[in-house]
Design brief:
By secondary structure, the protein is an alpha+beta fold. It has a single domain, classed as Alpha-Beta Plaits, CATH 3.30.70. Strand 1 and strand 2 form a beta hairpin.
Length: about 80
């Protein structure tokens, strides 16, 4: 399942550089996560790095992009190929 950033985001800029897949970018008002690039850090780390550094805890799972661990690993392999 991909992650998403809620409107509680304070644009602190700490999540974007932590994403190994470059899935996070500045949106019109807040940062956004590209679900096609988000693997929840599967293949890179044990836990999503953006969630670890977010000071306001505004990065939950995106219910519209549910994926299994195997699907996230497959996406990681495609991105890093």
């Amino acid at each position: 399942m991909a992650l998403m950033i809620t409107d509680e985001c304070i644009n602190c800029d700490v999540c974007e550089p932590e994403c190994p897949n470059e899935a996070i970018s500045q949106g019109d008002e807040i940062y956004v996560i590209d679900p096609d690039r988000c693997t929840e850090c599967v293949g890179h780390y044990d836990e999503p790095q953006c969630q670890q550094v977010c000071p306001v805890d505004c990065i939950p799972h995106d219910p519209e992009h549910q994926e299994s661990e195997a699907q996230l690993m497959e996406k990681y392999e495609q991105i890093t190929a």
